[in-house]
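Issue 218. Parser rejects a valid record. Input:
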Amino acid sequence: MSRLVAAAVSIAIPFAVASPAVAQTTAAPGAGGPTSAAPPTTATPPATVTPAPAATGTLALTLEKVNGKSATILAGDRFRIRGAVKPYIAGQTVVVRFYRGDKKIGSKKVTVKAGGDSAGMFVLGYRAGKAGHITVRASHRATAELATLVAKARGVDVLPLRASPGSKGLAVRVLQRKLKALGYVIGAKGVYDARTARAVLAFRKVTGMARTQIASKDVFRKLAHGAGAFKVRFPKQGKHVEADLSLQVLALIRGKKVERIYPISSGKPSTPTVLGTFKVYSKTPGTNAKGMVFTSYFHGGYGIHGYAEVPIYAASHGCLRTPVPDAVPIFNWISYGDDVDVYL
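Output the parser choked on:
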C-alpha cells in the first residue's frame, strides 16, 4: 500500500511543475520564480480630426463686347467672358464650356485670380466662327476649401455674314428670328422665301439702306446692334395702323407694340396719298375691277390693299399698296373704326 502511494506522488509532482499556468498562479510573489501575468492593456485610439467644411459661395458670368442687351455678334467676332467667384480662395479653378445648341463645341479651365471685395475673377476671350446661338456655362468642382459652384448660363446670337433669296439653314433661321423680334413678317422657318425677302426689304427701308432683298453683312451688323425698330408715333391710339411714307412701310400696332411691319408703295407725286389721321370705314374682300385685293378704306377712295405691282418707291394712284400675299393677313387684322395714321 505504501509503495502505491509513493508511486502516485512521484508521478503527480512532475505533472504539476510542467504546467506553466499552474506554476505562475501558485508561486509566491517576490520568491524569484514565475510571477502573476499582467492584465492585458487596450491601446487608446487617436483622436478623430473633423475637417473644416468647404466654404460655400457664388459664381457669376457676364458677357462683354456683345452689343449690349441684345447679346448679338457676327460670325468671326470675338467676345469676352468675365467671371466672378465669391469668396476668393487662392488656387481655385473654374471650367468654362461653350455649346452651340446641345452640342459642346469647346471648354477652357481658368485660374481664379484675386479681385476686389474678397471676390475672385477671371477673364476669357472666345471667337465665334459660325452662325448660331452659343450658350456659355461655367462651374467650379468642389475642393477641400470651396464647395461646388455653378453659374447661370449666358447666351449670345452669332449672325452670319450674308444670306439671299433661296438660301436655307441655320443662317436663315438666325436672320428670321432677329427680324421677327422686331415685328417684320417672315416666311417658312429656315427658308429664305419671298415673304422673308420682303421682310428684309422692309428692314432695309426702315434703316435707310439700299432697297434690295439681300441680307448682306451690313444687314446682319445692323441687326446685331439692335437697329431696325419701327418708331411708333401714336402709342395712345391703341390698336391702329401707321404708314410712314418717307420709309414706304406700313406697321400694325397695339399701343406701343409693333406687331407687324410690311413694305408698301404709296401715291406717286402726281397722285399723292392723303396725309392725316383717319378711321377705317369700309372693308371689301376679294379683288375688285381695278385689281385692288382685300381693301380697307380709310378716307374717300383711299385704302390699304394688295396689288400685283408694288415697287420699292411711291408709285400708286394714292392708295397704300401691299404685295398680294400680304393683303389678306393685313385685311383680317384691321377692324372697322381702327385709326390709320399717314405721315411723312
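Fixed in the parser; the record now loads. The first strand starts at residue 58 and ends at 64.
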